[in-house]
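chain below, 288 aa
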Amino acid sequence: MAVKTLPAGRGVRSGGDKVRAWVSYGVLVIGSLSFILPFIWMVTTSLKDQSQIYTFPVEWVPEPVMWENYARLFAQAPMWTYLRNTLIITVIGVVFSLIGSSIAAYAFARLRFPGRDIMFFTMLATIMIPSWATLIPTYIMFGKLGWLDTYLPILLPALFATPFNTFLLRQFFLSIPQELEDAAKVDGAGTVKCFVLIVLPMARSAMLIVGLFAFLYYWNDFLGPLIYLSSDNKFPISLGIMNFAGQQVQDFALMMAAATIAIAPCVILFFVAQRWFIQGVVITGVKG
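prediction:
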């Protein structure tokens, strides 16, 4: 009976490959711990009393668990107002991002007009411009429009498309067969109808990814509200926590409780939709 032998280099990992794999896993574990330990410390500190916070070595498990820290937080700070404002900004920002970026992406992916590629690459080039480089001109512009201390400077720019979201959606639109739209046009459908009835339904996954990225951006946005908002009753939670922390005198338990509340939706969203985040990275490499 003949015995088959595996081709050299296939089926059996060499010692060098195993070492590289173990080193890679070790680096990943260390990196993961370096990110997760501060998060665990933040959550546990929010459930401690003052005497436990300053102990050394660190007591990772609070005893007793001080759930009343969260009740004290909501009693001492307008957290419900901050959360409501953040939700308003986030929902409108996500909707505006989807509308503006999808229209621009479809134009760059399907429409033919002079200077299209130059405009697209110019738009992508703006990603390399730091936001603070244009901070003063945009602040003056919005001030002359009378939009300061409103949500308009934070939300309205999304209607005019953001470069990264536009690039991501354009990459996905390019992967949709052109023949589907050509067949619809033969039946009398116009450009808008093709976009709304054919392209958008087929791009649900890409739209969801853009919505997730937009949610994280607007939920965690700090610079925009800091620059354009001045009324405490309009602050989102990112700015509200800074305002609240500035009023505290070393009450780290309440500060960590506020930080935990702010980050909890993002953590939950990541665990629920992590495969979509990963797919968002993959989509950017589809057909350029």
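DSSP finds 14 helices and no strands in the chain. Residues 79-110 form the longest helix (32 residues).
thats it, cya
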